Amino acid sequence: MNNVIExxxxxxxxxxxxxxxxxxxxxGSYLYDGEGKQYIDMGTxxxxxxxxxxxxxxxxxxxxxxxxxxxxxxxxxTAPCVELAKMLCERTGMKKVFFSNSGAEANECAxxxxxxxAAEKKGKEYTTIVTLKxxxxxxxxxxxxxxxxxHYHELYQPLTPGFxxxxxxxxxxxxxxxxxxxxxxxxxxxxxxxxxxxxxxDAEFVQYLAAFCKKHDIVLIVDEVQTGNxxxxxLYSYMNFGISPDVVTTAKGLGGxxxxxxxxxxxxxxxxxxxxxxxxxxGGNPVACAGAxxxxxxxDEALLNGVRERSELIFSTLQGAEGVVSVSGMGLMIGIETxxxxxxxxxxxxxxxxxVLTAKNKVRLLPALNIxxxxxxxxxxxxxxACKVN
Length: 390
Ligand SMILES: *Cc1c(COP(=O)(O)O)cnc(C)c1O
Prior knowledge:
Blueprint (H helix, E strand, L loop, with lengths): L2 H9 L11 E5 L2 E4 L4 E4 L2 H4 L8 H13 L10 H14 L3 E5 L2 H19 L6 E5 L8 H6 L16 E4 L4 H9 L4 E6 L2 E2 L5 E2 L2 H14 L2 E5 L23 E4 L10 E5 L20 H12 L3 H18 L5 E7 L2 E6 L3 H10 L2 E2 L1 E3 L2 E4 L7 H15 L3
Parallel strand pairs: 3-15, 5-6, 5-7, 7-10, 10-11
Antiparallel strand pairs: 1-2, 2-3, 4-12, 8-9, 11-12, 13-14, 14-17, 16-17
Helix pairs in contact: 3-9, 4-9, 10-12, 11-12
The protein binds pyridoxal-5'-phosphate.
The site of pyridoxal-5'-phosphate has 15 residues, from helix 5.
C-alpha cells in the first residue's frame, strides 16, 4: 500500500474518511496524485483555493511577505492586515474587521460581538443566538451549538447554552412567537446553506429576517465562510438578497489557500470591542493577509461575470440530464440531487479524473472561480455521464 496512506491510518486521528488519493502537486484546476494521474478539481479544498492551486500572483504575494517576515504578534503594527481590512470595508460598507484563522473562529467572534452588544444595549439577559435548522457554523463547541444539525451534537453534551434553531421554511412564524418570550441577541444565517445540502434561502425569508432584526435591535450575522469572496456570483452572498447585515464572517476562500478568518463589523457593532475584549495569536497573520489582498483585489466585476457565466453553464448542462433529479445553489456553489447515491457518482467521477464533493445526499461542486471553460466542460461531461443510471 502507498506509504503515506498507511502511515496516515496509523498516526492521524481518525476524523476524516479520506479517499484513496494522495495529492502531490497542482496547478490551477488540475491536481496530480502520487502515480501521476491528473484530476480536474471541482472542490478546491472545500472552497478555499479561490483561483486554483499555486495561482501565480497569489504565490508571488505570499513569497514576498514570507521572505520579509512571517509573523510578529498583534502587539505591533503590520501593513498586510491593514491593507486587507481597508479593502474589505471599502467593498462591503462594513466598518471594522477582526482577523482570526478559520471559519469557526470568525463565527465565535461574531457571537461574542452580538452578545456583548446586546448585554450593553438591551440588558445581560439578552443572550440567545437564533440560527437555522440544517445550518453549519463550525466545529468548536460554541459554533457546534450554533449548527442546527442534531447529529453533530449527540456525543458532545453539554453544549454552549443560548442557541435556538428555527426552520428556514416557516421560520417567520416561529420567530414571531419567540419574540414575545426569548431574549434574542443575534440571528445568524448562511444565505446558501453549504454543508446542509447547498440550498439557497428564500429571498423573502432573508428580507423578513433583516427587517425583524432591525425592528428588535437584534444583531444580524451572515456566515459567508463558504459563500463569500465571489463564490455566489457577488462578492458576498448577502449582496444577492438586498440586505445589510450587522456582522459578516468569512474564511475559506479569503486566504486563497492559507488559514485566515475575518469578522466584519458593521455600523451598529463597530465599537463593541475594546482593548482586551477579544484576541488571537495568529489572527491577521501577515503572510495569509498578503495572499488574501492578492485574491480579493482580483475579485472584480469581470471575474464575477465569469463566475455567473460558469454557473449558468453548469445549471444548463446538468438540469434535466439523465439521472439528475435537481440542481441547487448559486454561483459556483452547486448541489446536484441524483437518482444514484451521491457517493457512487463521486467515485465514478474520481475514477475518470474529476474530483467532486458531496453535501448531505447531493453531489457538490465548488470549482475555482477562474476554472478554464474547457476544463469545466470536460468535468461536466464526466459528471453528466456518472449521473446516468445504467
Ligand atoms: C466551513 C464552514 C465553517 C467552518 O469553517 P472552519 O474554517 O472549518 O472552521 C463555518 N461556516 C460555514 C458556512 C462553513 O461552510
